[in-house]
Amino acid sequence: MLVLATVLTLAGITASRARICASATRRRSVLQTPHVLDAAGRNLCGHVYETLVGLDNDLHPVAQLATGWRQLDARTWEFQLRPGVRFSNGEPFTAEDARYSIERARHLAGARTFRTYLKSVAEVQVAGPLTLRVVTRAPNPVLPQNVGLVAMLPRSLGDKVKEADFAAGRAAIGTGPYRFVSWEHGQQLTLARNPAYWGAPQPWDHVMFQFIAKEPARASALLSGLVDVIDASSASIADAFTRTNGRILTVSATSYMLNYLQLDQARKVSPYVSDNEGRPLAANPLRDVKVRQAISVAIDRDLIAARVTKGDSVPAGQLVPQGFFGFARGVSAPHGDAALARRLLAEAGYPSGFRLTLHCPNDRYLNDAKTCEAIGQMLTRAGIRTEVRTLPYSVYITARRRAGRAASRNSAPSCWASARSAAIRSSRWSPPRIRKTRRPAWVPITAAGTPTRP
């Protein structure tokens, strides 16, 4: 979590009150339950709530509220919980609370919950005050990571707790280093240090998150001293911070966030593909592996990283960066080669190419429309005449959802992206110690197909 990592490592801000300008939450209108899968909300919730299993900078599982875990058999995992932990309301944390939290997350209705990650769970058992067992329907080697996504809540909240209770702070009860103080709708979140926190004491009595949507306004607030930290700084803005005689420090690293293309390759005929005269094709060329390979090598990832995103991304050839679980050594990002792309198209039976419509959002991610337009130009140069349609994200995602699950799986090529970086005002007392924040990787498409998740 970007904002959490930034707050936890700003040793240089020694005042009792830290001012954090959190642009990652610029779309927040309400505070949601921590059991909703929302990146902006998790940046905030991570200060108040904790999980059984934490994640390090490379997303490897580490102990948090669970001190250890093991497999008892192929389908049963046992977690030993940390003793002496209390919620911010004074209640002790036990295995009953852990079971309540996981069961609530499993059955919570609505969009973007954690049910997908917990669908393998068959039963949650309490084997002792600090011993929890999770039984799965089939062997699941990543169960600790999946359970580790679920924030722990006190079971005293019960089954009737509402979304409004979390937004108002009545249900915002966690074991984290800070506790909820106040929420000014869409403006500011204030947290206070949790005196009952089981871990190391936090350096600030209060932390305030201010929500400033525009990057220039965030940068101005940092330069003027109105805030101590901003996130999501583009490379062009970050360059200006280097001319502040060390008053501002910027940090970045490769992110697990990525851009990719999702191809309409499942349908036999695609409405977004036609011949060069605009006539429908009898067969969908995106179903041909050579065409997909041609699209992949037609995209010059290095050029996009250098010229379009101007240092805010790095080329990548797979879903995760080096060091992350699932990274395959030896699989590198292909270099752009329009001539090779044209040869592959000819081998697939399309020596003159074809027409393609590319859809993507234009206000959701950093450089999303520019990146999409650059891809369209590169595909056109390789022989695939591409029409780029950029849409407001609300329109874009609504259209995808309206079409239903099948359309989401079989939609026209789509771009997804994200960007993360941070800037910190150095104090005169001591230099900040910074945990690396993460910048996005670029994964447009694999040679054999497309990634299946954003």
Structure description:
- The protein is α/β, with parallel strands linked by helices and 454 residues long.
- It has 3 domains: 2-48 and 170-251, 3-Layer(aba) Sandwich (D-Maltodextrin-Binding Protein, domain 2); 53-157, Dipeptide-binding Protein, domain 1 (Alpha-Beta Complex), CATH 3.90.76; 257-417, Dipeptide-binding Protein, domain 3.
- Helices cover 26% and strands 22% of the residues.
- It has helices spanning 2-8, 39-48, 95-107, 115-118, 143-147, 163-167, 215-224, 235-241, 289-298, 301-308, 338-347, 368-381, 393-402, 404-409; strands spanning 17-21, 53-55, 61-63, 66-73, 76-81, 121-128, 131-136, 178-184, 188-193, 206-210, 229-231, 248-251, 254-261, 273-274, 314-315, 354-361, 384-391, 415-416, 422-425, 439-442.
- The chain has a 7-stranded mixed β-sheet with strand order 8-9-10-1-11-19-12, with helices on both faces.
Features:
7-stranded mixed β-sheet; D-Maltodextrin-Binding Protein, domain 2; alpha/beta; 454 residues; 20 strands; 14 helices; 4-stranded antiparallel β-sheet; globular; disordered N terminus; Dipeptide-binding Protein, domain 1; Dipeptide-binding Protein, domain 3
Q: At the fourth CATH level, what is the homologous superfamily of the largest domain?
A: Dipeptide-binding Protein, Domain 3
Q: What is the average of the pLDDT values?
A: 80
Beginning-to-end CA distance, first to last residue: 17 Å
Provide the gyration radius in Å: 24 Å
Strand order of the largest sheet: 8-9-10-1-11-19-12
State the CATH architecture of the largest domain. Answer: Roll
* CATH topology-level fold name of the largest domain: Dipeptide-binding Protein, domain 3
